[in-house]
């Protein structure tokens, strides 16, 4: 039961509120009115100047606060003044102490824990979409080449042997990455430079790759093609820059597993679309004679002249068009992420927003308001109290002081964790890059034919190691086989990787995935001895062939799906200081480019040697040993914080920022507590 003093005081309060409600106004004192009656609203008598009085001339506010007629002015001034009938939070706490157990206030539930991150939870989706589009255009170009590179090199000199063509394909692939190795650190340093920035480096890479594609498509010799591949690699440092920009757009670690997954996902999408596009558009005069050939729809009497002279120009022009569209998206929509120049005027971004405003202009239309319904709703509504109104107002937090920009010297970048992470990343890039280069060569290599054996002394196949030959697939089938790899990869990245990575963590998922690469590499050459529904020299086909091919690819893609995003996150977080983040990603791209230069060149040479000695699996089994070495090196890697070295004055700035943030959080908690107590009080009365 409540004490009598509390009941009497509550009765007086209820009586005063009932008396005030007859005139439609709840008494308030001060500049704010909490509730307005319908009649006063209609008569525009909204702000009464005098408080409501009792029959004896004493205001209800005086009764509530203990003021009496016989109190002197000095005594009344000494008493604390209240601006509202609603008790203060401290008074509320005292009154709720008299409530019985059956009337106890409910305990507010604990704050809900953050659930698993989904794709829709990612912040800055527009910026991520532009980066994704820019990244997608590059693997689209690279994988498109792989569908027809073997046949384009064959068209330069039809008299060359298959082993020589394999070596040339490895050189072309390695020339691009060799040029990247030389310039990647330079692009990373320029991306960290205030006079250049991330966005400009990204644009240089896109336009450079676009020019390289056009030149490669119109090449007529191996050395011309190599020059344009070198130029494209030298101008392209985009992978490291994109990783840096994603880490600056997505700062919370709980979003990183999905945000950094976007770049490998783009690769898999490119693997799906690129080879199919390259296979369909390569040598269109021979592939579609009724459309582009002699006496055709577009060819006329002699066929399309430029397509006959440059049969592989059309897929390269298509890739250049995609790169150009991506560059336009970056110019007009992507924001600079380098902290020191983020507020610098950007003409392209301003122009893009102006163009967007033309197509998204909104018309403001006004409709008549039903006065009767509005007044009824105002009269019948329960207005929130002053504390609740205050809790709904936007909070203005004190902005933390802008930290002074400091740069870590280049000589201090090389911490133990950085070196171990780069070592493991380099080994991973070497065997994955070698696999990607050898895979399409292996698919295009002619099958073993007992009637025309190559080499001539190798007259029959013997297991477990003495067999040779590829699968003899044409560009269309190569494109489809490469697309199978991409479909498996994109499915795993969308539905499997985020959940497994969240459960295992970045380092463990990275180490476990590395165990699968040796299994896949060991099984690849045995596809040559799978029974085919068609005899050689036709391409290998049949249910068993495609099932075995899909199974081997599934193992390799599962490993790659978990290893590559985890490697990107580990590279990003091993950075010893935020000022060298772009440099770290540039170094990692340089290491990756060096590995992907050595791997394909040596791998292409080794594949050709394996064909000469009648043992096609030689290079694949060397990859098994390399992948095992990478798995052992992963035990040295740990996940860093991204800021392990603090320069002079940074500790003090960080502590000052934390104090300001904690003060803002405490004020928000106090305001929330006051509003909750006010709502409870209103329910009780």
Question: Structural class of the helices, strands and pairings?
Answer: mainly alpha
- How large is the share of residues in beta strands? under 5%
Rg: 36 Å
What's the pLDDT, averaged over the residues?
75
Give the overall shape, derived from the CA principal axes. globular
Query: What is the end-to-end distance?
Result: 16 Å
User: How many separate helices?
Assistant: 28
Order of helix and strand elements from N to C terminus: HHHHHHHHHHHHHHHHHHHHHHHHHHHH
Task: Give your account of this protein's structure.
The chain contains 28 helices and no strands. The longest helix has 35 residues, at 650-684. Mean pLDDT is 75; it is low at 1-7, 20-71, 80-109 and 381-395. The chain has 685 residues and is mostly helical. Residues 59-81 have a biased composition (Basic and acidic residues). It comes from Lepraria finkii. It is a multi-pass membrane protein.
Keywords:
single chain, 685 residues, mainly alpha, 63% helix, globular, disordered N terminus, Tet-R_TetA/multi-R_MdtG-like, Major facilitator superfamily (MFS) profile domain-containing protein, membrane
What's the arrangement of secondary structure elements?
Elements: H1 4-22, H2 38-42, H3 60-64, H4 73-78, H5 89-96, H6 125-156, H7 162-192, H8 197-217, H9 222-234, H10 238-249, H11 256-259, H12 262-281, H13 284-287, H14 289-292, H15 305-309, H16 313-333, H17 347-359, H18 371-380, H19 386-392, H20 416-444, H21 475-495, H22 497-504, H23 506-514, H24 516-523, H25 543-573, H26 581-613, H27 618-633, H28 650-684
Helix pairs in contact: 6-7, 6-10, 6-12, 6-16, 6-21, 7-8, 7-9, 7-26, 8-9, 8-10, 8-16, 10-26, 12-21, 19-28, 20-25, 20-26, 20-27, 21-25, 22-23, 23-25, 24-25, 24-27
Main location: membrane
Pfam families: MFS_1
Biased composition (Polar residues): 23-36
């Amino acid at each position: 039961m409540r004490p009598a003093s509390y009941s009497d005081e509550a009765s007086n309060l209820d009586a005063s509120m009932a008396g005030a409600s007859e005139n439609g106004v709840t008494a308030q004192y001060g500049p704010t009115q909490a509730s307005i009656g319908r009649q006063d609203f209609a008569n525009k008598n909204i702000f009464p100047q005098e408080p409501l009085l009792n029959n004896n001339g004493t205001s209800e506010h005086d009764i509530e606060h203990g003021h009496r007629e016989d109190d002197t002015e000095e005594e009344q001034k000494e008493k604390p003044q209240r601006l509202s009938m609603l008790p203060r939070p401290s008074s509320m706490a005292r009154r709720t102490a008299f409530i019985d157990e059956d009337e106890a206030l409910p305990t507010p539930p604990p704050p809900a824990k953050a659930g698993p991150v989904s794709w829709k939870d990612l912040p800055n989706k527009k910026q991520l979409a532009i980066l994704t589009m820019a990244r997608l255009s590059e693997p689209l170009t690279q994988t498109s080449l792989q569908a027809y590179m073997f046949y384009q090199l064959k068209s330069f000199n039809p008299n060359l042997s298959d082993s020589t063509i394999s070596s040339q394909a490895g050189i072309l692939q390695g020339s691009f990455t060799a040029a990247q190795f030389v310039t990647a650190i330079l692009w990373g340093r320029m991306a960290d430079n205030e006079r250049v920035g991330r966005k400009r480096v990204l644009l240089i890479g896109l336009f450079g790759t676009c020019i390289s594609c056009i030149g490669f498509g119109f090449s007529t010799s191996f050395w011309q093609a190599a020059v344009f591949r070198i130029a494209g690699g030298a101008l392209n440092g985009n992978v490291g820059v994109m990783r840096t920009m994603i880490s600056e757009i997505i700062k919370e670690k709980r979003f990183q597993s999905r945000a950094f997954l976007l770049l490998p996902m783009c690769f898999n999408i490119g693997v799906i679309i690129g080879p199919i596009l390259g296979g369909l558009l390569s040598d269109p005069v021979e592939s579609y004679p009724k459309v582009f050939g002699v006496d055709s729809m577009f060819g006329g009497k002699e066929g399309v002249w430029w397509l006959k002279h440059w049969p592989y120009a059309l897929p390269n022009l298509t890739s250049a068009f995609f790169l150009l569209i991506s560059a336009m998206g970056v110019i007009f929509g992507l924001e600079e992420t380098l902290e020191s120049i983020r507020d610098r005027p950007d003409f392209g971004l301003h122009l893009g927003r102006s163009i967007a405003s033309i197509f998204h202009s909104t018309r403001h239309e006004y409709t008549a308001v039903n006065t009767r319904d509005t007044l009824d709703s105002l009269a019948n509504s329960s207005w929130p109290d002053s504390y609740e109104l205050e809790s709904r107002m936007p909070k203005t937090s004190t902005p933390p002081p802008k930290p002074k920009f400091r740069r870590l010297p280049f000589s201090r970048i090389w911490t133990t964790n950085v070196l171990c992470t780069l070592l493991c990343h380099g080994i991973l890039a070497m065997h994955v890059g070698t696999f990607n280069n050898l895979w399409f060569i292996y698919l295009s290599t002619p099958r073993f034919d007992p009637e025309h054996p190559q080499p001539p002394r190798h007259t029959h196949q013997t297991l477990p190691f003495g067999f040779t030959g590829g699968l003899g697939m044409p560009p269309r089938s190569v494109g489809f086989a490469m697309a199978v790899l991409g479909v498996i990869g994109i499915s795993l990245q969308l539905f499997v990787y985020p959940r497994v990575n969240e459960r295992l963590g970045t380092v463990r998922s990275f180490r476990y995935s590395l165990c699968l690469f040796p299994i896949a590499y060991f099984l690849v050459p045995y596809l040559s001895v799978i029974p085919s529904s068609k005899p050689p020299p036709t391409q290998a086909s049949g249910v068993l062939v495609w099932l075995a091919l899909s199974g081997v690819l599934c193992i390799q893609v599962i490993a790659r799906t978990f290893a590559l995003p985890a490697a990107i996150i580990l590279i990003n977080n091993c950075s010893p200081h935020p000022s060298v983040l772009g440099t770290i990603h540039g170094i990692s791209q340089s290491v990756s480019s060096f590995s992907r230069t050595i791997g394909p060149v040596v791998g292409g040479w080794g594949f050709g040697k394996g064909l000469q000695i009648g043992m096609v699996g030689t290079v694949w089994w060397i990859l098994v040993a390399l992948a095992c070495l990478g798995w052992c090196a992963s035990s040295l890697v740990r996940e860093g914080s991204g800021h392990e070295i603090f320069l002079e004055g940074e500790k003090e700035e960080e502590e000052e920022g934390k104090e300001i943030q904690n003060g803002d959080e405490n004020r928000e908690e106090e305001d929330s507590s006051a509003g909750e107590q006010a709502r409870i009080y209103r329910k009780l009365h």
